[in-house]
């Protein structure tokens, strides 16, 4: 069993990843939030702070790209390979409307020939180990059937599949029957992604899909940074810190604050912390008024004081 960190745009950046790895090393591999592809003359590699090797000294990362132009995709892959990366992930699963309307992310899934064109050129013109992160489709689950049938012919590393349609965003129940069908028809290894928010849910999914060995955790890790550790502890002797999770969360949060202060300005650090608290507020079961109160705060130190008070005084279902 291998547990991965999912890419969540604007939050699972190197500050968060490195901090997570310092406090729990159960997750050893992460796919980064996506970088937009660009033609070679417009590439500004030094601005890719999230994937610069000097910023990633903890878990192994696989850079993720988004876009639909095969030539520009190859240009960007080559630039990443020059940084030392051998594995590259392509996002054809992002459901955000501003992405899909440009035929990027999940907006590419109704166009299987465009998907195949990028895969073909990349595997022909580079030596990178390419993988895809996808959904069942944008509008219809048949879209993924066509894509998987086409890309079975190419040497891909793996497929990450989230068992929802793009138009569902993150609502509704995942279609696990469709996921099972696609995992069986794919000739590439499958990584399951979606809705693993507790040990109990993981147990249910791993029992239903016993052949799946790779599991991607996203929102569940943001709600509970020690979820992967708790999942591993089901079947293996725990090797991590045995301190109470409540105190370890306080330590993790303090470390993240200092990391953000070191690498980001006040506005950027506040934005990252607010994004994290969209998920922690679920774990701490904050009511609507409590959420409004903290998200109205626009000063970093004040936000830190209020959220630290929550960490120190509230009990929650995970810790």
CATH superfamily label of the largest domain: Aldolase class I
Shape: globular
Low-confidence regions:
none
- The level of helicity is 40-55%
Distance between the termini: 23 Å
Would you count the extended β strands for me? Answer: 10
Radius of gyration: 20 Å
Largest sheet: 10 strands, parallel
Instruction: Give the averaged pLDDT, no decimals.
Output: 93
Order of helices and strands: EHEEEEHEHHEHEHEHEHHHHHH
What does this structure look like?
It contains 13 helices and 10 strands. The chain has helices spanning 14-23, 70-82, 97-100, 112-125, 142-151, 176-185, 199-208, 219-223, 227-232, 245-263, 266-283, 288-295, 300-313, and strands at 2-5, 29-31, 35-36, 60-62, 64-66, 87-92, 129-137, 159-165, 190-193, 214-217. The protein has a 10-stranded parallel β-sheet with strand order 3-5-6-7-8-9-10-1-2-4. The longest helix has 19 residues, at 245-263. It is globular and about 55 Å long.
């Amino acid at each position: 069993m291998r547990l991965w960190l999912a890419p969540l745009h604007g939050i699972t950046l190197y500050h968060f990843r490195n901090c997570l790895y310092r406090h729990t090393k159960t997750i050893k591999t992460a796919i980064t939030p996506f970088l937009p592809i660009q033609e070679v003359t417009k590439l500004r590699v030094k601005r890719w702070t999230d994937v610069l090797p000097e910023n990633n000294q903890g878990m192994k990362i696989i850079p993720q790209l988004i876009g639909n132009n095969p030539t520009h995709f190859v240009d960007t892959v080559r630039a990443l390979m020059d940084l030392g990366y051998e594995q590259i992930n392509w996002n054809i699963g992002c459901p955000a409307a501003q992405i899909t309307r440009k035929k990027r992310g999940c907006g590419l899934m109704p166009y299987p020939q465009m998907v195949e064109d990028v895969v073909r050129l990349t595997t022909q013109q580079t030596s990178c180990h390419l993988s895809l992160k996808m959904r069942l489709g944008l509008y219809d689950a048949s879209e993924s059937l066509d894509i998987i049938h086409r890309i079975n012919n190419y040497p891909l590393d793996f497929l990450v599949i989230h068992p929802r349609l793009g138009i569902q965003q993150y609502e509704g129940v995942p279609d696990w029957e469709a996921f099972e069908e696609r995992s069986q028809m794919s000739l590439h290894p499958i990584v399951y992604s979606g809705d693993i928010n507790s040990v109990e849910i993981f147990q249910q999914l791993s029992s239903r899909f016993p052949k799946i060995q790779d599991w991607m955790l996203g929102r569940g890790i943001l709600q509970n940074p020690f979820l992967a550790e708790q999942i591993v502890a089901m079947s293996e002797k725990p090797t991590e810190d045995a301190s109470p999770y409540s105190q370890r969360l306080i330590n993790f949060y303090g470390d993240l604050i200092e990391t953000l202060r070191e690498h980001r300005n006040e506005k950027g650090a506040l934005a990252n912390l607010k994004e994290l608290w969209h998920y922690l507020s679920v774990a701490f079961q904050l009511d609507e008024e409590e959420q409004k109160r903290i998200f109205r705060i626009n000063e970093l130190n004040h936000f830190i004081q209020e959220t630290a008070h929550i960490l120190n005084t509230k009990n929650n279902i995970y810790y």
